[in-house]
Design a protein that fits this description.
Elements (H helix, E strand, L loop, with lengths): L4 E4 L3 H9 L3 E3 L5 H6 L7 E4 L8 E3 L5 E4 L4 H6 L1 H6 L1 H8 L4 H6 L2 H6 L5 H4 L15 H4 L21 H8 L3 E6 L2 E6 H4 L18 E7 L7 E7 L10 E10 L2 E10 L6 E2 L1 H7 L6 H8 L14 H19 L2
Parallel strand pairs: 1-3, 2-3
Antiparallel strand pairs: 4-5, 5-8, 6-7, 6-8, 9-10, 10-11, 11-12
Helix pairs in contact: 5-10, 12-13, 13-14
Amino acid sequence: MYPFSFTKAPSTREALEAGRRGGRYIAGGTTLVDLMRETVERPETLVDISGLPLDEITVTERGGLRIGALVTMSEAAAHRKVRTTYPVVSQALELSASAQLRNMATIGGNIMQRTRCTYFRDVTAACNKREPGSGCAAREGYNRTHAILGTSEDCVATHPSDAAVAFAALEARVHLLGPGGERAVPFAEFLLRPGRTPNREQALTKGELITAVEIPAYPRPLKSGYLKVRDRQSYEFALTSAAVALHIRGGVIREAKVAAGGVGTVPWKLPAVERALIGERPSERLWARAAASAADGARPLKHNRFKVELLQRTVERQLRIVGDNA
């Protein structure tokens, strides 16, 4: 660890002012503190925002759900409205981490967490995400857990958040507050693909603060769920995962929202899978046909070619699980 200053923001206004001056926001700190300990992150000032009034879950006027940025993962997963209306979110949160971490980590911090790529966390390794222009050791190194979708020549690291996959599938919006006022960003635009600037991971401007994640209303009934495939059953990041939400009425699929995790540099929306489902009647053949396009555009590396078929099988299985219960 190295010297840094610490201040607790008593109000949103003072938090924004500290952020404008270059302070880094911290609440649960379950990721940032680890990165500071490993000297991957070296903020000069930490701004504790844990006391701000951003810890409520409310139903929106249109019937969606707004989850405050400082709601803990445990609180969100256990909330009655989340569990009954969007179980895919509850399941993703519960599969994300140990109970101790879920009790500390916040929704805002969860979607802001940085990759678990071993080369990113090893300050002696080349990593464009950590040190722009230094190279990407993962491309020619051991890359079994790395991304096959959304990669670039500069970065192949996966985004680690399970909850973000559920939010991406449900086409949530991230509410932000900054020096320029309030704005809402579609989730698909909030987390950025690496391209030539893998060090820029979110569509935040200097000093902006996440205030909430809003899930839009969907026709009822909406059946949903989250499936996570990993090397061991607990406390492990996804090799691949699938978030699925289906609205089936009159025996026909009217709405389909599908996204994958563990395979993309960001949570990966699967519009081709969704298009294959809309207007169709649920069947084993449909699940297989739709899931066959889940890995379209994949660019596997030497050690993670297995993820192509694993992703297709994971999506097919979760479509079947959700569809059979719809």
